[in-house]
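During the second year of the project, the team shifted from modelling isolated chains to modelling whole assemblies. The rationale, set out in the original proposal, was that interfaces cannot be judged from single-chain predictions alone. As a representative example for this report, we include one of the complexes processed in the last quarter. Its constituent sequences, exactly as entered into the pipeline, are reproduced here:
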Amino acid sequence: MERHRDDIGARTGMWLFLFTEILLFGGLFMLYSMFRMQHGAEFHKAAENLNRIAGTTNTLVLITSSLAMALSIAAIRRGRKAASVALQATTVLLGCVFLLIKYFEWSTEIGRGIYPNSPALLKLDHGEILFYGLYFVMTGLHGLHVIIGISVISFMLVSTAKGNITSTDHVRLENSGLYWHFVDTIWVYLFPLFYLVT
Amino acid sequence: MNPGKTEQLKTENKNGEMTYILAWAMLVALTAITVGVYTLHLGTAGVAIALVIASLKAGVILLFFMHLRQESRFLQSVFLLPVFLLGAIIGLTFIDVWYR
Amino acid sequence: MNESGIQPGFYAAPGSRTGIFSWIFSTDHKRIGLLYLFSIFSFFAVGVCFGLLMRLELIAPGRTIVGPSTYNAFFTLHGVIMIFLFVIPGIPVSLGNFFMPLQIGARDVAFPRINLLSWWFYITGGLLALLSLFTGHGPPDTGWTFYAPYSIRTGTNVVLAVSAAFVLGMSSILTGLNFITTIHRMRAPGMTWFRMPLFVWSVYATAWVQILATPILGITLLLVIIERLFGVGFFDPAKGGDPILYQHLFWTYSHPAVYIMILPAMGVVTEIIPVFSRRTVFGYKAIAFSSMAIASVGYFVWGHHMFTSGMSDVARVVFSFITFIVAIPSGVKVFNWVASMYKGSIRVDAPLLFVLAFIFLFSIGGLTGLILGALATNIQVHGTYFVVGHFHYVIFGGAVFAFFGGLHYWFPKITGRMYNEKRARLAWLFLFIGFNALYFPMFILGWEGMPRRYYDYLPKFQPLNVVSTVGSWIVATGLILLFANLLRSARKGAAAGPNPWGGTTLEWQTSSPPPHENFGEIPVITQGPYIYNPSKGKGHGTA
Ligand code: HEM
Ligand SMILES: [Cu+2]
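Output from the structure prediction step:
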């Protein structure tokens, strides 16, 4: 049976999936709003301790990775396979850099004895406990999405190299791009909510 | 109905590399602004400004990187649905927590 | 062709796989629909057994067959299975999968492989739920709502049960996005939005609820797991958290989930009524729009489950008010159905009997829902058997009766054979009488103050509890009759022909059972469905 091909349909499916992702994170944004409303001052105090340089760097890293992703699709559309592969590799690499920086940030906090349910954390005010709880859960869930994104794009990279993704048939790559940009968008909100709440 | 060929072409994204690079520059600039505003320590107003800037950034990503500009009218209109819904969920819960 | 003159249709699909593998790896929407049908009814049987066991325990006060902790596990698993493994997937994944593509004139859904994947997620979730029974420190005992803080503190096997519900949620999301894309992209030429059968509209509205509500459940369940493993403290007042926020998150999903259950059932009802009254549907657009209206307003009423939770007064009044608004589109539908039958030439076969039962039972469920939606009366009956009576009337009397109606209505199309009408009516009679005996006493018991979720009760409640338990046996008999009849007829029934009811929607224009890929040639649509006056045309086909 000839496979029914419908690129618009495929993209529609991906967008609908992203809607579900918005609402998945949405539940956490709801909790964030309620807790921040009740504990504004403590949120401020806790946020002071996060590393703003790391957060800003990571923002730039993700934005740039998104650019590479978008360019890789433009490249394959023009049939420039090698360029597309290189740009996808850049995206993957920058994704890994993001995770690495995140890893160092988490290690610092854990090194200070701050992690969910830790004795040092429980001594702090309620608002600070909640702030760090949200911080770990939300950046953790986001990090998980970054990992998934990296895996998917690596897979696409191989497909492109093998010639399965071409200038006329690349909706899979486009959909992976949509996912990656979405992950970037979530970070666009996480960054101010955790690093800039003062 | 087989999706018409013309329809397929209309929504084919024609963004050039330049569009992407400009979008990226805008994002970098907005990041710089939001960090700059942070250093002024404006309190709650600062958080509001940061969120507005974040939404601008999200808009740039959506319109240019994710090509929402060229997508079908259906997608453009329903995109606001989950966003609006999330607002409503937060709003209604807010009514509870605020007046408690 | 076999000895009875029935084409094998898609049952003889070409393909390299044979036997069971030609089903569990099939991407044909009809095969997946049947896979789902058998899977969900297998779980339904398990859920019914738990229900019967609970009723048996409640035949007399005090310990009858099980003690309190076993009873807690019973109602938890009964609830989890009935909700997450039976009614939520329910009509869309089975009848919807089978008939929605047929009704819009498509050869399959937009993403056939994702369709199959969703079934695998479903089975994985189901197995995890069953596994939670036998592993860890005892089966979960939280109720299907997994309320914090108890779900975070109890030593029982909550993580596994919650993971099961999470995986089932992913399955539901995949079905939803698949169906929306299908309805947008795969309609036959001329099948404009307002020419679609109303069952398709209802599946469409349901799919939106599935993708926009289920993620909230996903994050809620994920948080239960995270809380249990790491103790973050979002729902723990000792750490500044707030258990009421758990309830907000949970009901933000679980009230809309009620519409995932009931909207497709309303769609089935709307298909059956015109065919068995030989009249066009009264108020096509009103019904289509009311589906969408129910789906959207239904998002904003979740707080009516939390009137006694400690929520603020303002929020209680707001939620109570919006709840009354949702009743309007549901009322619109009931009036449209009744008006559609008015002056029709009604033919009271089993499908219509189930529909009539649906309208009756659902109306009782809906009206008692208003008592629960009103703030003042809710306080009186909250947490009592009144609630148990109410939601069984809505879900079992509503959704499940309509499901049974749909099963009979489409049985000849699915199997190519006719079921035995006399036995079907007998089963219906048992179910209808048994149902009311089983659940009506619960309204009285609840009004008098018998609390739900206890294995025991005050002796003064016994007479009505006995009636209820006897009712459960009658229902069980009815269920056995119904399924025995259908299973037997699937092998022995007389050939049904392509269009035994004279339906005017597209599924009746192809052979029974439909061939692989549904249609020889994709039909072209020139007018709406449900046209029974020959001078006005033939709807989507021969009326
Ligand atoms: C023969 C069929 C059934 C029987 C005998 C039955 C019986 C019961 C009883 C006695 C309870 C109350 C337990 C308590 O509060 O102590 C209950 C709860 C419940 N039932 Fe059923 N039921 C049946 C079918 C169904 C169906 C078809 C559904 C949904 C599709 C359903 C969904 C539920 C749910 C969600 C609960 C609440 C569980 C909880 O409190 O956590 N039941 N059932
Ligand atoms: Cu509700």
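Chain A has one domain: 7-195. Chain A has a mean pLDDT of 93.
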